[in-house]
Design a protein that fits this description.
With 121 residues, this protein is α/β, with parallel strands linked by helices. It is built from two helices and three strands; from the N terminus they run E-H-E-H-E. A three-stranded parallel sheet has the order 1-2-3, sandwiched between helices. It is globular, with a radius of gyration of 16 Å. The termini are far apart.
Amino acid sequence: MLSRGSGSVVNVSSQAGLRGSIAGAAYTAYKHAVIGLTRSAAFSYSPRGIRANAVIPRPTTAALESNYGSLGDAGPVPSLSLTSPDIESAQIASPMTYLLSDDAANVTGAILPADEGWGIA
């Protein structure tokens, strides 16, 4: 990409990268790091024609399993009922392919929630 002077990178984070998470400290720190890496790469490489963005997909049935029954004072966990129970792989891939496409030629450093509103709960 550097030799061509153009390219696009799309990283995948999660809601744990935007806020504290009951998924565990290591997972939460990793997903925050993905967002930091994305923004740093966008800042460093956009002058050289390389875009870097991240997508935050919605939870799926294959999401991390955790015991959400006892959170102490952590408050309520967003409900998966806000999202449709069935999801096609294209619904996860389409925001990524948009960011990789020429249609997003002027988008870099974006963190795109593609989660059917799950993150607003």
